[in-house]
Amino acid sequence: MAGDRESSGNVISVRDLVRTFPSPRGTVTALEGVSFEIRKGTVTGLIGPDGAGKTTLLRILAGLILRDSGTVNVMGYDPSADPLPVQGSLGYMPQKFGLYEDLTVMENLDLYADLHAVPPSGRKDLYAPLLSMTGLGPFLGRLAGKLSGGMKQKLGVACSLLHRPPLLLFDEPTVGVDPVSRRELWEILHTLVRESGATLFVSTSYLDEAERCDDILILLDGRILGAGSPADFYTEVRGHAFELESAGQSPRSVEPGISVLPGVVDTVLTGSRVRILMEDRSPPVLPEEFEHFPLHPVAPRFEDAFMDRLRRTRGGDGKTRLPRQLHRKTGRSGQGEEESAILVENLVRDFGTFRAVNDLSFEVKRGEVFGLLGANGAGKTTTFRMLAGLLPPTGGTLRVAGQDVRKSPSKARQNMGYMAQKFSLYGQLTVYQNLRFYGSAYGLSGKSRTDRIQEVLEFFELVSYRDVSSGILPLGFRQRLALAVSLMHDPEILLLDEPTSGVDPAARREFWRIINGLATEGVSVLVTTHFMEEADYCDRLVIMAQGSLLATGAPSEIKERARTPQLPSPSLEDAFVSLLSRAGPLQETGK
Amino acid sequence: MRQDIVRILELARKEFLALLRDRKSRMVLIVPPLVQLLVFSYAATFDLNRISYAVWNEDTGIYSRQLLARFSGSPNFRLVATLSHREEVAPLLDNRKVLLVVHLQSDFSRSILTGTPARVEALLDGRQSNTAMILLGYVQTIVSGFSEEIAALRSIAPPIASIDLRAWYNPNLKSRWFIVPGIVGLLTLVVSLLVTALSVAREREEGTFDQLMVTPLSPFQILMGKLVPGFVIGFGEATLIILVARFLLHVPLRGTLGALYLGLFLFILSGLGVGLMISALVSTQQQGLLGAFLFLVPAIILSGFATPIANMPQFIQDLTLLDPLRYFLVVLRQVFLRGADISLLWPEYGALFLIGVLSLLIAGAFFRKRLG
Amino acid sequence: MKDGGGLGGRASLLRIRALIRKETLQILRDPSSLAIAFLLPFVLLLIFGYGVSLDARHVPVAVVQDSRSPDSEGFMAGLRHSPWFSPTIYPDIHSAVEALKRQDVDGILWFRENFGREIHSSRNGPIHVVVDGVDDNTARLVEGYLTNVWQTWITLRNERGRESSVFPVTLEPRIWFNPDNRSRDFLVPGLIAVIMTLIGALLTALVVAREWERGTMESLFVTPASMGEILIGKFIPYFVLGMSGMALSVLMGHFLFGVPFRGSIFVLGLTSALFLSAALGMGLLISTVSKNQFVAGQIAIVSTFLPAFILSGFIFDVHSMPKMIRGITHIIPASYFVTILQTVFLAGDIPGVIVPNSLALALFSVFLFAVILRISRKRIG
Fold first, then answer.
1. Strands B100-104 and B161-168
2. DSSP characters for A14-57?
3. How far apart are alpha carbons A216 and A38 in whole angstroms?
4. If A12 and its partner were Cys, which of A38, A402, B120, C326 is the partner (CB 3.0–4.6 Å)?
5. Answer CATH for B51-153 from 3.40.710.10, 1.10.8.10, 3.30.70.360, 3.40.1710.10
6. Phi then psi for A332, rounded to 5 degrees?
7. CA trace torsion A545, A548, A554, A559 (10° rounding)
């Protein structure tokens, strides 16, 4: 109906869009002068970390939020002034798609068909291709709440397609979905655009999904950091990337030295190598001690372009350098000079009839960074909570720092730092009040507490935020504070549950630098993550699927298993997908 | 031991900050209880004044006019209509235009002169039976007074015996003296439940509970840490309400403050205990809210706050034994009006202590069970 | 309503039907709203219907006779026969006072040494009565009951002695609508109003918050369904649920507690519908205004239960309240419904009461929904 008004070929055009939100400390600017166009019939990716303004932008396009200033045109209409015609021909899928979990798959489909006035007679023909595409056919009578994360997202996609909308706005459809389902979802999206000629605008926080799009829009801190096709971005950094083989030496001890070299934009560990991104095509000038290490140029990644852009926008070298050393107590009581920091044997946990963790065994050595990988629902968090003593295991043994977690939880906790997936400090309390409280909770008082707080504040560069309520800290600083709290009592073992989710890549680098620093000082770190590239930073890792151990070993060993003639140098994600598919098709099991 | 106390105090400090650093939650804790105290104190009364009534007088004699003058002279009554037919009565009563119709038949004065009993018919709206009862008492007083005067005039011997009634503790039978101490208890209970019932669920939803549990703090210490601010806030508010009751609403406070505050301490203990028990049982704030509601509503209605426990059937009376407000209301009324001291109130103190300790033990057990 | 689109029209009806069907399926699968609608009123009415009573029966009183006389014994017999008192003999006034202080008894009757002598010399011997005035209501009832016993006793003695009447003027009360003056008859209709206030608010306050929490509200917003349609789709199923709960309460009130029902089912149904609209509207408004559960919960407690309990005329007669407070009762929907229910149950369909109060409820509902529509745009944040 609005088709004749789209003569320009742009389905969406946005000029100087600004949107602010009130907050306890004045106003927060979510979008700061955003301008872009989206061509008809393309897949455009909106890429940026959490808090970049992606959701706000999509909601403005859908007419759910008003703008402060600027112009917005969606299919010939202004969504703020005229929301109904826009919403009538829009397929919108919010981040947390509103499936009615106590309705069945079929009832959800019918509800949205009714709301969009799809005539009952044509529904059979309409549902059939959607169901076969999403593979939901066999589960029509199942309650939506009992579907797996990936299946729920697919149902959400199906529900927003029922009225054959010419424009699709999807907000992070792949978040919390395992790599296999992620690939399937992208295939569905591409098929859809190809077959129906619709336009898709999709946001994601996974940088590696960028190359699946026709066009890319990078959003950071409410501004457009870059726009163009993936090829445009790759061209910018072609020849800037190198890999250094740290033969015989731990790459973790090499990387800090490399990162401060002139011309280096970014360094990151990949297995036994250090990946280096340079300002230009000239390779890094290595200091003497690393001179003999082999250095190869490598193909650029999208992330390189992102980091490069980030450096140029944020100015300087884009890097903040934290002091290397957080003072650790001397003469630690090396409680039970055991080799292993964490020992898990035949761990089992049941919830009713459902077995969340099934016969899991692994060992984390002292001073090791150990990764725990798996899709949502694989049992990572359950395992983690058992290690932290928050959940009693159904069977098996758990030893943390030589202590049985079940028998002497208090002793085990004294040696353990824990950082939960969600920000879990008191938002109403200031940074200082949080540190003070947790310090006393671990038995610090008087001068030793005051000193430690000061030290931690300085180390994490939180001094200027000392009296700010922690709930309104910027995301990256909140994450730092959470880590600072878990380090107040100088633990030997650190448990980090998805510590970097939603943090922008630069802040993630910083975070990992701290973790690496701690590991070199002998702290054992157990970390879960769903960023596959982060798994590369670990010494060893465990991959879990449906509660069981799927593979264990160093990242390079795991990649080795996925090597095939077609795929000579598989990424960890490739390995993950091939391992999962070899383990048998993902069964739809009730949660 | 010292270490334990320091940790508990630090926990309490944290709870305080979490409660009071937020302006909204500060307001919610302080403003509504005071507003409610004032509104409810004036609203909750059984005393009647300015009762609208109608007169239907068929008598033309002097006595009927004398009797009716007593009604119109009383500040409690307000004449709304004068009727002359039976048909006029029903619409007035039905539509609540009047609560009372005084009917005097045409032989009223004659009966008095001839010495046969003269009847005064009082037609009352019984929809609010309690109001009707009280109103009937007022009418009875006027009629009896008139009757005595006539008897004296006509030298009829007075009744051989009369009742000489005195109401102790509340000689003018003021409702406010009965209700306001009750409101002290009612609002203290609401506040102590609000402070605790949602607190653990809130920590759970915000994720801070896990962070707390991985510290070496024991469940006991965490519970104690949550109790201290509840006590401070509960004591503060109750004191404020008691001051308002005594000096603004002029309710006498005859007993010792020691007896009052020992009761208050034990009552807040049991209120916080129940709150924490709800808190430990539920997993979301919404369930916590529902739980608080489901405890508060019966606890208030069956406490004896407005309707005496003695009037309830036995099995409900047994049920009220679990209600901490029931005991505290006794303490409050005993101390405020009867001037009781500690020695009279041991059974109530004991019951409150038991409820408090038991609910805390259950709360502790649930905490521990959840953690395995 | 700029962004609401038109109500009415076939497409609109279809959307409303779909929303109602969805809500109904959810209600049927989630036992908690069924429990709130049926179990809660059942249990609350059961407990309170039996528990809340202002009729004092078998009030314990202490009787002290300094010297026993046939006259005091006669009075005692009158006491024993009345359903209102259960007298206990105490040996002396001192022990009786102690019992009063311990609250073992609510009052003391004291026949002094010379009671019998004074009666025989026709000198109007006084019976000293002390009541515990703390509970003023019970004290007043005791006074009334006692006067009753006393009059009967005097009249009986007079008839026996054939003396001329000592009461030249007597009162003949006729209590309309509730001749036995059972407090339960007026408390139970009031209770129904209080309970339905609570349930109406709880039902809607919780379900709308849930829709926001689970993110389904956002998905509904981008469908062609207008805010008005979404609200109607929410309102109708819970209205039906609430009316069923209401019917259950009324049946219990009439058959279990024996409250007479003198009005018509039609008027009851109509006024209940109006009241329920207002109660559900309150809940919808609370959950629309504050999406924060903590604050919404506290508002719900402060603004529904306690005012309905104390300010609605359920126990405390609105007539007795000071003018300013009476003004406040006008903004509490329960106060209108309490009046209507007491009238429909005990007095019948009386237009003079029903019409103005129904109008007030209708105005209330219209006002609430107008406010909700005004403030709840199809927008987030």
1. unpaired
2. EEEEEEEEEETTEEEEEEEEEEEEEETT-EEEEE--TTSSHHHH
3. 10
4. A38
5. 3.40.1710.10
6. -65, 140
7. -40
Domain limits, CATH 3.40.1710.10, in chain B: 51-153
Question: Does the pLDDT at position A524 exceed 70?
Answer: yes
Residues C148 and C228 in one domain: no
Q: Which of A253-257, A566-570, B26-30, B143-147 has the highest mean pLDDT?
A: B143-147
Question: Alpha helices, DSSP H only, in chain B?
Answer: 2-20, 23-43, 62-73, 89-94, 108-114, 129-153, 175-197, 199-206, 208-213, 219-243, 257-281, 285-301, 314-320, 324-333, 346-371
Question: Which of B96, B119, B320 minimises the CB distance to C172?
Answer: B119
To the nearest whole angstrom, how far is the Cα of B343 from the nearest Cα of chain C?
A: 11
* Dist CA A196 CA C349 (whole Å): 64
Strands of A10-23's sheet in order across? A26-39, A10-23, A69-74
Q: Give dist(CA B244, CA B246) in Å, integer.
A: 5
Contacts of A8 (CB under 8 A, 6+ apart): none
Residue of B nearest to C206 (CA): B286
Length of chain C in terms of residues written? 381
Contact B45 C320 (CB under 8 A): yes
Residue B126 has pLDDT above 50, yes or no: yes
List the domain range (segments joined by +) for residue C27: 10-53+182-375
My answer on whether C189 and C296 are in the same domain is: yes
**Single-letter residue type at A149:** G
Amino acid letter, residue A589: T
B129 and C182 in contact (C-beta within 8 Å)?
Answer: yes
CA distances from C152 to C75, C149, C159, C175 (A): 10, 5, 11, 19
User: In the prediction, which pLDDT does C180 show?
Assistant: 74
pLDDT, tens only, C182-241: 778 888 888 888 888 888 877 777 677 777 767 788 888 888 888 888 888 888 998 998
Query: Torsion-angle region of residue A213: left (phi > 0), alpha (psi -120 to 50) or beta?
Result: beta
d(CA C367, CA C371): 6
A102 neighbourhood in chain C, CB within 8 Å: 25-26, 29-30
pLDDT of amino acid A334: 47
CATH code for the domain in which residue C113 is found = 3.40.1710.10
**Are the beta carbons of B267 and B331 closer than 8 angstroms?**
yes
Same domain, C21 and C90: no
In a domain, A400, yes or no: yes
DSSP B255: S
- Nearest Cβ partner for A94 among C21, C26, C219: C219
Chain A, window 380-399: residues with a beta carbon less than 8 angstroms from a chain B beta carbon = 385, 388-392
Q: Which domain holds residue A11?
A: 3-97+160-228
Question: pLDDT by residue (tens digit) across C123-140?
Answer: 667 888 888 888 888 888
pLDDT at A588: 43
Domain co-membership, C29 together with C83:
no
Q: pLDDT of A362-384, one tens digit each?
A: 999 888 899 988 776 778 888 88
Span A277-297, average pLDDT: 84
pLDDT in tens, A112-150: 888 888 888 888 888 888 888 788 888 888 888 888 777
* CA distances in angstroms from A304 to A40, A261, B342, listed in the order given: 29, 17, 78
Q: Give the pLDDT score at B280.
A: 85
Look at residue B355 in the predicted model and tell me its pLDDT. Answer: 95
Question: pLDDT: is A578 or A109 the higher one?
Answer: A109
Count of CB contacts below 8 A, B vs C? 343
CA dihedral A572, A574, A576, A581 (to 10 degrees): -170
For the ranges B35-39, B127-131, C156-160, which has the lowest average pLDDT? C156-160
